[in-house]
Each structure stands twice: as structure tokens, then as C-alpha cells.
Amino acid sequence: MWDTVFSTANLLAMAMWAGLILLPRWPALLAAVLYVGVGLLSFAYLVGLVGILTGTFDPGGSSGSAGFSTIEGVRAIFASDGGVTIGWIHYLAFDLFAGLWIARDADAKNFSRLVQAPILVATFMAGPVGLFLWLVIREKRARSAGRWK
């Protein structure tokens, strides 16, 4: 079961990233990335996390020590295919949300799609790396236009 959930989440994320990087940024596409991509991944994470922590899903991978306050507790969550899968879905959802924000911000600041593409690919492959690159690259235009625009 977890292989199917993992593969489905990956396919959904890849489709949303491909659209975000390659297609025109029509409002419908941006809404699809937000609600279909980020929204469904976030919902899958919620269901999976509750299921793992309560022992409803993957009871063999859950233990009394599972939790977020210690490294042992986090290790206990990731000690099963279910835990790894929901952890991966967490990454997919947040990286896609960061990519959507980067794309919208870059469009608003008139950065070309050629500049955006490698940053979005970096965000897709290694989320915080792409986000960091974008924060550095955007700074001059953000400052000249007023930081919050």
C-alpha cells in the first residue's frame, strides 16, 4: 500500500512542478498547483500522520516513543514505510508551496522564465537550496520595489 501512496504522491508533485515550470501561469494553473497539488499532498500528509501516530496505519512502525520532541521520537516515526512515505509527502507539499511562491514572486518582479527555471528546479530537487537562491536573487528588486511588493 505504501508504495502506491508514495508513487502517487510523486507523480502528482512532478505533474504540478512540470506545469509550474513549463506552462503559462494562467490563474487556473496556479489554482491547480495550490489546491490540487499542495492541497491534496497536505491532506494526504494529515491523514497519514494521524494514522501513523495513532497506530491505525502501519501499527508495526508506530511505538509509544513516536513523536516530535526527541530525535528518538522522530526516528520512531520514520522507522516504517508509512512513516517514510508521510515524511516524503511533507517534503513534496512544502517544496511545491515554496516553488509556487517563488514563481508568483518572480513573475511579479518581472524575472524571466529562463532565470526562474533553474531556481524552480533547485527547489524541486532540494527545497531549501532553491528557496535560499531565490531569496538572494530577488533581494535587489525587492528592495527597489519596496520589500513587500
UniProtKB/TrEMBL annotation:
One Pfam family cited in the UniProt record for this chain: ABA4-like
Keywords assigned: Membrane, Transmembrane, Transmembrane helix
InterPro entries with a match to the protein in the record: ABA4-like (IPR025461)
Transmembrane segments: 6-23, 30-53, 117-137
Protein name (database record): DUF4281 domain-containing protein
Organism of origin: Qipengyuania pacifica
